[in-house]
Design a protein that fits this description.
Elements: E1 8-12, H1 13-26, E2 31-32, H2 37-41, H3 45-54, E3 59-62, H4 65-75, E4 82-85, H5 94-99, E5 102-106, H6 109-122, E6 126-131, H7 143-151, E7 159-165, H8 177-190, E8 197-199, H9 203-206, E9 216-217, E10 240-252, E11 270-275, E12 292-295, E13 298-305, E14 310-313, E15 324-328, H10 334-341, H11 345-350, E16 357-361
Parallel strand pairs: 1-16, 2-9, 3-4, 4-5, 5-6, 6-7, 7-8
Antiparallel strand pairs: 1-10, 10-11, 10-15, 11-14, 12-13, 13-14
Helix pairs in contact: 1-3, 3-4
Amino acid sequence: MAEPAVARLTIDLDALAHNFHVLKGEAGGAELAPVVKADGYGLGAGPVARRLWAEGARSFFVARLAEGEVLRAALGAERPATIYVLDGFTAGAGPRLSAAELTPALLSVAQVAAASAWAAGAGRPWNVALHVDTGMNRQGLTPDEARALVQGHGGLRGLHVDLLMSHLGSATTPDDPRNSNQLSAFSELRREFPDARASLAASAGIFLGEAYRFDLARPGISLYGGGPFERPDDRLQAVATLSAPIVDIRNLRPGDIVGYGSSVRAERPMRTAVVAAGYADGLIRAAKAGGYGWLDGARRRLLVVTMDLTVLEIGETEAQVGDPVELLGPNARLDDLAAAAGTVAHEVLVRLSRRAERRYLGEV
C-alpha cells in the first residue's frame, strides 16, 4: 500500500546546536539565554530547550507564564535553569511563578509593586528582571521610572534585580541611529544597577558589536536558522525542513488557469506539480509572489498555495508522483520564504502546523 500523501516537518536539533555555538562565538563572553517562547518558535520548546541545555544554555526566555511552567516540566529537576517570563508579574501570578521557580521580567511600576507585595508576603527576597523601554515604545518601565525605583526608599523592597534588560527596535538595520540611541540610554541607566547583569541584544543585536552584548544575550530567530538581518546567512543552518510529496503532474496549455479565481494563468506551455501541503500545514498563501520550492536540484517557482495543496512550475525535470518537494529547509530558505510572503522568519516558523508529521533529529 502506498504511503499517505502527507507533509513532513523535520526538526534538526543538531543544526540548532550548530547555530547556538555560532552565536556563542559571536557573543564573546556574554551568556547566551535562548528564547523559546511560542513553543520554541513553533518547533517544540521541550526538545529545543533540552538540546540547548545539553549544549550549555542555563537561562531561557518565554513570553507567557504557562509557557514557563511547561518549560520547567520539560527540563525537569535534572536540568536546572533560570527561566525568565517576559509577561512579568500578571494578576494572581505569584503562586504559580513561585511554584515553577520562574523569574518575572517586570515591565511596569504596577508590576514592581505587586511583585514586591508578594515577596513581602512570602517572607523572602525574590529574584526578578527589570525590563526598561529605551526607545522601542512597546513595553517596559521608562528610564525615569526605573531610576525612581532604585533611588527612592523601598521601591524594590523584597526584590533582587538579577537582570536589567531592554530590547532593540531596529537591530536588523545596523545603521539605524535608533540602535546607538538605545545603547546610550541603556548604558547610562545600567550605572544605577551595579549589581545586576545587563541584557540588550537579541539575535541581530549580537552582530552589532561588542558594546551591545553586555552580560547576557537573548537569541531567538537565529537559533532556528533565520538570518540576523532578515536575509539568509550561510553561517547558520536550517533547523526546520518542511517537505511533501507530489500527488499529480500536469501539462498546461497557454491560457489555462491554475487554482481558484483567474489570477494565475499559463502564458506558455507549462509543466506543474501539485504537492500535498498548503496553508493548513503552515505555508503562507501570500508567498506565491516570489516563493519557491526545491525539487531535483533546483528552485521551482511557486504558483498557488491552497489549504491542502500547493502548485509549482517544474519545467522539464524528471520528477514523478510521490517524489518529495522541499518547501522550507536548507535549499528553500526560511528568510526567502518570509520575504516572498511579506513577513518575517518568526511568523513563518510559528505558523507551521501540527498537521504535518513531525520528527526530531538529535533529540536528547
